[in-house]
Each structure stands twice: as structure tokens, then as C-alpha cells.
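Reopening this one. Same input as before:
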Amino acid sequence: MSSLSSLLLCLVVVLAEAASFKSSQFKVKESIVAPPRGWVEHAPAPSNHILELRIALPQPYSPLLEKHLWEVSDPSHKRYGDYLSREETEVLLTPYPHTIDTVSEWLASYGIYEEHLFRSSAQDWVTIRVPVSLAEEMLDTKYHLYRHSETGEYIVRTTRYSLPEVLHEHIQFIQPTTMFARFKAFRSTLHWTTVPITPTCLRQLYNADGYETSADNGNHIGITGYLGQYVNNHDLQQFFETYAPEAYGSNYTIVSINDGQNNQSIAAAGEEADLDAQYAFGLTYPTPGTFYTTAGSPPFDPDAHTPNNTNEPYTYWLEYMLSAENLPQTISTSYGDDEQTVPESYADRVCMGLAALGARGVSLTFASGDYGVGDGDSNPETQLCFSNDGRNMTMFVPMFPASCPYVTTVGGTNYIPETAASFSGGGFSNYASFSRPSYQDNAVSDFLSKLAPGTYEGLYNPDGRAYPDVSAQSDWFIIAFKGQFGYVGGTSAASPTFASIISMVNDARINMGKKGLGFLNPWLYSVGYAALNDITMGHNPGCGTEGFNASVGWDPVTGLGTPNFEKLKELALQLP
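Same output, byte for byte:
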């Protein structure tokens, strides 16, 4: 009898809470003043367009996860290298049970039950597929088609959405709603030259010539692919045969995420994916390589009768990686977008996921971007660096995820002797939650102290996370693309290059019975900088200015400098 009473009581509570969602007053959860520059409202979104809504539940134990990250990444801490397991990380990402239950009850009040949704392994993400009409009812909003004036692409978004007030503490955010980021690949246009950068050149330049990696010691390297970027195998073998003959005939592992493909037609070959694979896998051969291909962000045709998904793909990759048992020790990514196109709540969440990978012992490198301090334009009359907060003020435009404090961001150099590439992205985060991390406090403070008083005052946030952290060659890289050799440039070339050097250092550590380096920055800023080549020439113009100058020590153009493999290896082997 008592069990029946308890069941009835539970049912009454569930029904009451479900009813409370309907009766609870809606309150704005997130809003933006206007779409980011370039996006123009086109038409109301088709009511039958299917949205794949991703609901982020709060992670109350994230401060503890961050504490673990600092301890296992700090060379001076007794826990250095004591990385967390997948299970331990998941526990630290899991929401409160009451939060999970409350959100489930809210979804059920709209007829969305457990069999209609997908939960991440840590239960911190809930994914549902609903038509625009239902999403508008659930979020008290109106979705529209927005068209990008430069690219012509369409996405379905809104500028504000609301939730019942009782849900605000249980939902961190819901996307796609107010996020207009495209997470485009960083790369320059294919061009031609007579002085190429090749794997052999990079090994010689960065003092790694002659080092032989292992094929079976457990070391791995990964690269990521989004937005229909595919590694063409014919291009890869053509490149290997000519510029990395020892790797000719070798293969890599493909991991498909969210039905990601690796289309092998010549027309589908991806310039960015080809670049990443040819250099990351060519430089580190025979270290096993993995290409993570993630689907998402297909073009949206507003005249089509079949609804399409217009989600960005980045969180799909992150969710997969956090649930995977085995991870590469080093992963390079060359995608991002203007920080101000990404809601801060979303950036916080993604960055915490990257922190979790770091706590598991993964070294993550990200390209810093290819537009200097903003748009790459030094002319005040034609620059396009404006705030998206309604004030339309000129400001430097940092990039994300480059501005995340838990990744190693790679800027660009060119020429020999090396100078800063003029397009090398660099600057300071404007997110309040991305304040300057302690590991770089001394280096960044030293740089700022050398600036003339008032330099670029009001254009950047001197208290924000500063980037890049390091740099590498980034122009005149020869690649095989669609069956022909050509040259590309951009910090998308620098990221896999630096990652490859770190992968080789990890190889040496693993051969000695040690673990990989994991999150690099605490080590790089405290000790590792001594094994980097300081770049002191060049600058990164943009936003109507000449940008920042490369200088002695850290600077927001080339970071701490470019790698010297033998010196890095020597220092790394001294670590526990």
C-alpha cells in the first residue's frame, strides 16, 4: 500500500511540474542585439524545417575538472601527468540528477519522451529533432532565414529565445538559436611560387631531421575535418611519393562523426583537409594518424521542399571525443570564427570540453586565424572591425576557439630567417569568462609593459586570454590538390606543423615509458619557451591599424616562438 501511495505521489509531482512549465512565465534566456555583420534577415523560417536542438545542461562540477587540469598539466605539481580516465572525466561533466529530471519533464510536456531524444555519455547534452513550429512554441521565439551577403549561404536562426523561468537554472543554453558562427577553415588561396615549404624543409628548419618515430609504441596524431572537407587519398599518395617517400603507400584511420564522409571524387577533395593530412601524417610517419570527419552545416536552400539541418558540427566532434575510450595524444584543428559570432555561453561550454580532453592527456593545437588583429586591413577607411553589441564601434576581433585558455593556439611565420606572417591572427579575448590565465600572466604582462601608453586603447581587452601561444611556418606550403601540385598558406598550415613536432616529442617520451605532454601551455610558458625560437620581426595589421609587433619574448603575433624539436625533446624528457 505504501509503495502505491509513493507511486501516486510521484505521479502527482510529475504532473504538477509539467503543468508548471506551461503556466510559468517565459523569461529571455539569451539574446543578441542584431545578427553579426554580413548576415541579413531573408524570410521567416519554414515551419516544417527540422531543427536539431542541442540542449546544454549545467556542469556543476566543472570547477573541479579545471582544478584537475591545472594540476596534471603543471610541471611543478606532484600530480603532473596523472591524467583522468574517460569515466572520471564524465563524472565531472555530469549535471545534477534533479536537473536531468526537470529538463526531461519539460520535454515530456511537449510530447518529447526518452525514445525521441539522444543524451551524451555524461548526460550533459540532450539532442532533439523538432520542426521550427514546435521550437518556436517551446522557446517563445520566431526563427528566420538569414542570408550571408558575401557567401550567399543561408542558416535558420533567431536573435532571442526564452524559457520558463523555472528552467533557467537547469539549462545553460540551447542552440541553434543565437549563434551565427560558421567555423570556417583558416587558409589562404591556392597560389604559386618557386620556393616551397615541404616536410623535409620543416624537419630541417625545426631541428627534427633524422628523428625516427615509432609505428607501434602507442603514440597517435589526429586531425579534424568539417564543412565537407575530405582527405583525397590519391592526392595524399601523390604528395607522399614526391615529398615524403618513406610514407608512400601508408594509410590512416577514418573516424566518421555524425555521418561524416570522406568523398574520394576529385571534385570533393578538400584543400584544408589535404593540407592537414599531407603534413601531419607526412611529418610524423610512421606514427598512426586519424582523420575525424564530422558532418554538419550543409547549405540551406530556402526554396527546397525538403528541410535540411543547418547545425554547426563542432559540438558533435567534441561530444564524440569525450565519450571515446582511446584518444590521440595530439590533435590539430584549423577551423574557427570571430569570437563575437559565438555566444559566450556556448564558448564557455566548448572550452570546458576542450579542458576535459586536456585533463585526459591530449595536446590540442588550434590555428590562430588569418586576419591579423581582425580583418587584415590596415586602412582605417576600409576596415570592417565593428562590435556586434549595438554600438558598432571599431574594435579588434579575436577568434574562437583560438581564444580558449585550454588549447595551444598557433600563429604563423614565413621566410627564413623567420619573421611574423602579416596575416597571423593574434590578440586578446573579449569574453569576461576568458580572463588571462595565470600560466601566461608574466609573459603577457611583460609585453604590455613595453607598449607605449595608450597604444590601441579601447580596441582590445588587455585583461583577456592572450594568443597565440606559439607559431610555425604558415606560407608557401606545397600540397597535392585535385591531382596537381600547388601552394597554400595560412595558420591552418602552422597548426598541424606545430602539432607534428609535439607528436614527435610525445613519441620520444612514450619510448622512455612516460606519458604524452597533455595540455601544453603551463609547461610552455614556465619551461618550454627556452626550446622555442623567439620571433622578433613583423606585425599583424588589421582593423585600420598596423596591429601588434613581434618582439622579444611573448607577443600577440607569434606567441613564444617556433619549435626546436631537439631542445623540446631534451626538456620534455626531464619531466616525470
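So the earlier flakiness isn't reproducible anymore. For the record, The radius of gyration is 24 Å.
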